[in-house]
Write a structure and sequence with these properties.
The chain is mainly alpha-helical. It is built from 26 helices and five strands. The longest helix is centred in the C-terminal third of the chain and has 32 residues. It holds the Pfam family DUF6541.
């Protein structure tokens, strides 16, 4: 654990960059309470990602000083605008409106969630510089390195892709507190152990009330699911989706608070969070729309049953929602080519409906066992809400909506279902993680249900403190206690696979490439099969590699070089492409990662038999070659 202690400054800096700018802004807008804190990371990310793109357009190098200036200007505008056009609570002074007042119970609950997350994540992850063996990690690490090296944090650098996740981490790493790999690992821990518990506690308190039992239960419930954050810490690696899902409970809590209170400051705080969510992962916005619609529909049906509204009004409103929803689903991919591309993703592992239900409800996703403890807690929570806290029934409906989306993505072969699930790449893993957002509320609701049952036990009925303590501690016992080993095996398997072909770049491989990288003059280009781990030379050592993702792109100079490198003597187009990228070195290896696309890198195999290169040094499984063909050798 000594390695993790050394990362505390990194954790602090990344947390401050993530929370402080947005918190100051939403406080100036008039949002208060835990919801304001929970939504502040989304607002901060929006400020960083959007204004970093603007800074690039006007020729300003992004950094902490531009962030401070942008934050100060936005806060001043928000404060001035609210002074002129808005209304604050008259009983609150200016200092209280800005700074708020911590709630001890909520702080304790957040600490509980954070401690449980750290206790489960850190041992499984191993070391801060441990590489999660997933191809997406190569791209994300490379993009963060590109931001840091260029000072250009734009959404279009190097290609158009949401920049919220990458720009936040790169901004936090500007002071030099950590290298890219350990810094990114610490950033994911900030999301899982700080952002997620804060959002969960805010959502649960808003949905179920602010009693101590429910508040503490929220802290324990934030660590109850393997589907989130455990899976998204290593599978994919879906780091932007990890960030978006971690931010969703806080945004949802503020949305529900604003809808009930109708305070302009809370609505403005929620609106201020939307750009950040879109610039992290747009499906977070879609998730909030789905949750809001489910809440509205459920509330309308409940109003009809209670005769607060006539059924004619209820039917009219539901018909409008249905018509607008269907029209939006059909029109969205027509308007957005990017969305149409996202919806075209297809997965081969279709399963029967019952299997899909077991996976999403029973938690048997990528693990062999059903999480029976979690199933019991979900059932108790749903029962308690249905009998005692009916105002929270919309949250149950949200969870059922996620279950339906999951089943559609996991089992349906109908083409139209992609119109609904395509926002999540038709990926059941992302939808299982999303189901944890309302699921946390259901698990927390199990605590008062258990307390009610335990009060009927003769030995405990007269001891309210003992009853409450037992009721809330059942949550970690039935989740972390029963499936802690399963959770650990899953997460450690992402970072330390047992099969060598599942390892992108081992520590030994990193050492070999580090020594070879030292032989390459700064700035000169290097090429190698992406599947041998050489793209990681860019984020780890700053070596100018041609490929910075796995696998090779199918267009442009990358595919020309990848398929024609071994024939450079007879391929002027290959030489021209290499000259454009100053390719003067090549790396070969006996190691090949499992996600192999040999047809895209056929020209980069067995470099010992390729004319136009000469070996320089072999270190471990890797050999460095100098390019002598295409007239590129003279300057080497």
């Amino acid at each position: 654990m000594a390695h993790w202690v050394e990362t505390i400054p990194t954790f602090v800096v990344l947390s401050v960059v993530l929370f402080l700018p947005g918190w100051l802004l939403v406080r100036a807008l008039g949002a208060r309470g835990l919801e304001a804190l929970a939504v502040s990371p989304a607002v901060s990310t929006g400020l960083i990602a959007a204004f970093a793109t603007v800074a690039q357009r006007v020729g300003v190098r992004w950094g902490l000083l531009p962030l401070a200036v942008v934050t100060a200007v936005c806060v001043a505008l928000a404060w001035g605008g609210m002074r002129v056009f808005g209304r604050h609570d008259p009983e609150l002074g200016a200092a209280r409106r800005l700074l708020g007042r911590p709630r001890p119970d909520a702080v304790v609950a957040i600490v509980i969630g954070a401690v449980l997350a750290l206790a489960t994540i850190l041992p499984a992850m191993g070391r801060p510089d441990e590489l999660v063996d997933s191809p997406d990690a190569v791209y994300h690490l490379g993009r963060i390195k590109t931001f840091l090296e260029s000072g250009n944090f734009s959404i279009a650098n190097p290609t158009f892709y949401p920049n919220g996740f990458h720009s936040w981490i790169a901004t936090g790493l500007l002071p030099g507190v950590a290298d890219v790999l350990p810094g990114t690992n610490v950033a994911t821990i900030v999301l899982a152990a700080l952002v997620w518990p804060i959002g969960c506690v805010a959502l649960v308190r808003h949905a179920l009330g602010t009693s101590r039992l429910v508040t503490y239960a929220a802290g324990f419930a934030s660590a109850a699911f393997i589907a989130f954050p455990t899976i998204l810490l290593g599978w994919g690696v879906l780091w932007p989706n990890l960030m978006a899902t971690a931010l969703t409970p806080g945004a949802l809590a503020l949305l529900l608070q604003a809808a009930r209170s109708r305070r302009i400051g809370q609505w403005l705080g929620f609106v201020a969070a939307m750009p950040g969510l879109a610039l992290i992962q747009p499906n977070a916005l879609v998730a909030l729309v789905v949750f809001a619609l489910v809440w509205f529909v459920t509330a309308r049906l409940r109003a009809g049953l209670l005769r607060h509204l006539s059924w004619w009004v209820v039917a009219r409103d539901l018909a409008v929602v249905a018509a607008v929803g269907v029209a939006g689903l059909v029109a969205a991919p027509v308007v957005s080519a990017q969305l149409a591309s996202t919806q075209s993703y297809q997965w081969k592992d279709r399963v029967p409906v019952w299997t899909a239900l077991v996976e999403v409800v029973g938690g048997r996703l990528q693990i062999p066992d059903v999480l029976w403890g979690l199933v019991v807690l979900l059932a108790l929570g749903i029962g308690w809400i249905a009998l005692r806290v009916r105002a929270a029934l919309p949250v149950v409906a949200m969870w059922f909506a996620c279950v339906v989306l999951y089943v559609m993505a996991a089992s349906s072969t109908l083409s139209w279902t992609s119109l609904v699930t395509g926002y999540w790449y038709n990926d059941k893993v992302r939808l299982a993680s999303l189901a944890a957002v309302p699921g946390v509320v259901l698990v927390a609701a199990a605590a008062p249900a258990l307390r009610e049952l335990l009060r009927k036990v003769p030995a405990l009925g007269s001891r309210p403190v003992a009853v409450g303590l037992v009721a809330v501690l059942v949550i970690p016992v039935l989740t972390l206690g029963l499936n802690g080993a399963t959770r650990h095996r899953m997460l450690s398997g992402f970072f330390r696979p047992t099969s060598p072909e599942r390892v992108i770049l081992s520590f030994e491989g990193q050492d070999s490439l580090r020594r070879l990288a030292a032989l390459i003059p700064a700035g000169q280009g290097v090429v190698g099969r992406p599947e041998n781990g050489s793209p990681l030379m860019w984020p780890l050592f700053g070596t100018n590699t041609l490929y910075r993702s796995i696998p090779i792109p199918t267009t442009g100079d990358e595919i020309v070089i990848g398929t024609g490198f071994n024939d450079m003597e007879h391929r002027p187009d290959v030489c021209e492409a290499m000259a454009r990228h100053d390719i003067r070195w090549a790396v070969d290896s006996t190691h090949v990662y499992w996600l192999d696309r040999p047809e895209r890198s056929s020209g980069l195999k067995d470099l010992a038999h390729v004319d136009g290169v000469e070996p320089v040094r072999t270190d471990g499984d890797y050999t460095l070659y100098r390019v002598t063909g295409c007239g590129l050798g003279a300057a080497g």
